[in-house]
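G., the chain you wanted modeled:
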Amino acid sequence: MKAIWKREMRGYFHTPVGYVFLGVFLAISSVLFYLDILSRRSTNLPGFFTEISAIWMLVSPILTMRLLAEEQQKKTDQLLLTSPVSLPGIVAGKYLAAVTVLLITAGMTLFYVLIVAIYGQVFPAELAVNYLGFILEGCAFAAMDLFLSGCAATPVTAAVLAFGANFLLWILDLLQTAVKTAWISDVLKFVSLYRRNMTFQAGQLSYACIIFDLAFIALFLTLTVYRLDRRRTGSGSPDGSLLQRIRRGIRKEKDADREKRKSRVKKWKYSGISAALLAMLALSLTALCIGADALETRKGLRIDLSFNSMSSYSEKTQEVLENVGHDVHIWALFRNGDEDVPLMELLNRYAAASPRITWEQADAALNPALISRFTTEMGTPQDEGLIVWCEDTGRFRLIGPVEYSTWLTDAETSEVSARWNSEVLLTEAIHYVTRERVPKVVIVQGHDEWTAGMLETFENMLKAYQYEVQYANTADKEFQPDPRDVLVFFSPRQDLDSAELEKLNAFARQGGSFLFTRDYADDNRMQRMPNYRVLLRSCGFECIDGMVEADASAKDTYYDVYTTWLLPEMLSTEITLDLVAAGRTETMMVNATAFETPEDTDNYLMTSVVLQSGETAHLMRPAMTGEPADSGAAGPFALALQSWRITTEGHLSRAFIIGDTDTLVNEEYLSMTDGQELAIRVMEYLLDMEASNLNIMPKVGLHPTLGTGSTMLGSVLLVALPAAVLLAALLVLLRRRNR
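Predicted structure as C-alpha cells:
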C-alpha cells in the first residue's frame, strides 16, 4: 500500500494534475474569501467554509480521474492487478494519495484563517468542527469519484462520470425541498452530503454525521475493491480473467476450453456471494446511520461548539423544562431547504430534555388548516415562525421570524450587531402555555380614566399575548378584585371614595398588583384626589407637578427638535434586565411628568427607577399666565418607577407607574420604539410571571468584524496563493522536461 501511495503522490506532483487541482481550488476559494470575508469585514468563517465546501463537487473529479481509469487506458492494470499488493491495499493506497492532496489543499486554507486571526477573532472549537465537516465532505466525494474512476475506460470519461454524480447529489439535495411526499423527502435528506456538512458549519459536533460520512467512504471504497476484483476474475467479461488469458496463451486449446467451462460456474458462484455480501454491508451501514441519527436526536447528543452556543440553552431553561406540567407541541413553519439550522438544533435539544416537549416541521403553504386553526384577530402564524401549543390548557403562542433576532447599530462606528432571542422566546412561550391560570388584566373605570375606545391598541396588544382583559368599576359593590390579577389605572381624574380605597388596600395586602399612568394634563386635578394619592404613596410613588423638558444641548435625550418629546434612559431593573441586555431600550415620552419616593416610607417597601430623564433636564410648571415656566428643579427625573412591598399577611404586592400614558397605549409610539416590549415586561412583573424572572440572556448573533487593515494583506494573499502553486508547477515540471 505504501508503494502505491508513493507512486500516486509522484503522479500528482510530477504531472500537472495536482497543481491544477490546487490552483483551481485556491483561485475559487480566494474569490469567495474576498466576497464573504474581506469585502464585508466579517469573521464569519463558518459561512465561508459552507461556500468553499461546494468546490469539492467541481474539483474532486480532477483529483480522482486518473487513479484507476488511466491504468486501464494504458493497460498497466494487468501489472497492477497481478502485483503482490492486495486489492484493498491498492484501493487504500490510491485513496490515501488523493486524501493527502486534499488535506494539503485544506491546510493551505489556514492562510485565510490567519488573516482573520490577525485582524479579528477566531473561535478554535467552532473552527475545528468547521474543518472536520469540510474535510469529511471532501473525503466522501473522493471515495465516490475513485469508484467511478474504476468504472471508466479513460480519465476523461472518469471525470465526466464523477462530475455528473457529484452534480446529481446536489440536484437531489435541491429536489428534496420540492418533493411533497414525506418519505421520499426524508430519504433524500438522509443521503445528502451537503445537508450533513451544514450541521458541522453551524458549529454542531454530530457523531451521527461523522458516522454517515465514514460509512459513505467505506461503502464506496468497498465497491471499488469489488469492481477491481470482478475485473481481475473476469466476471461478466467474454474474454475471461487476466490470469486465464495468460494461461490460455501457453496451454493447449482443449485444456483452455475445459478451464473456461469450469471457470464460468466458479465465477457465477463467486460473483453471487460477493454481491450478497456487498448488499449486506450496504444494508448494515444504512441501519447504523439511521440508528445513529435517531439516537442522537432522541438523546440530544450533538455538542454545540458554535462561537455563541446558539443551539444550547441555559440553566434557567433546563429548570423550566424539568418542571413542565403539560404536554407541549411546537410547529416550526419552515419549507424544506429553508430551515434555520441552529433553531432546529435548539428544538431538538428541548425535545430531548423533556418528554413533554415535541415538535415537527410544517410548511405553512401545505397546511392551511393548521394556519387557520391558530389564526385570530391578533395575529396569523407566519412562514419561518413557530406555534407553541398546549392542548391541556388550550393556550398557544405565536413566535414570528422577526422576533428571533434583535439588530443594533452603534451610533459612533455604524457597526451592526445582533442578539439571538430564540431561547428566550421559546422558554417563555412554553412556560406561558403550560400555566394553570390565564393572567388577567383589569382596567379600572368610573373615575374619568381613559376609556375602552381610547385603549383599543393596548387591549389588542395584551390579547395578542393571550392575556385576558376585563373592564371593571371599583365602586361596584359586587366587584371584588382577585389578588392574582393586576389592576390598571389609566390617569384617573376623579378621586376614589373611602370604600374603594379600603377595597384596594385589602387587594394589595393579599398580594395584588397595580399599574398606574399619569399625564401632565392631570396636574391640577391630582391635588383634589387625596385618596388616590394615598394609594400611590402606599405603593412608593409620589407625584411631582410639572412637565419634564430636556436640555436643548443634550441631543440624545429628546426627539428631533422637540425638547418635551423625551427619549428616556432605561435602567436595569427586574422589569427591564433582558431588554437592556438585548439593547431594546428605546421609548418615547411626550409631555411627561416625574415622580419621587415618599419620605415616610418603611423597610418593607422597595422602589426602583425604571426610566429617567437626562441629567441636564429641567422641570416646567404652569405660571399664573398658564404658560409653563422653569421651576428651577434639575434632573435627572424619574419618569417611571417600579416597587414591591411585603405585606403584613406575608404577600408580595407589586406596582408600576409611568408619567405618560401614550408610551404604553399609543400605536404609533409602540411601533416606533420598544414600548410594546416594555409594556409586556411590566405585565409579567406585576403578575409575577416566572418567565419575566428567568433573566435568560440573548445570544450574540454575529461574529465580530475584521480590522480595517485586513483588506490590503488579504488581497495580497488571495493573489499569492494561486501564484505560488503556479510557480511550484513551473519549477517542477520544467525541470522534469529538461531531463
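The longest strand covers residues 638-646.

Shout if anything looks off.
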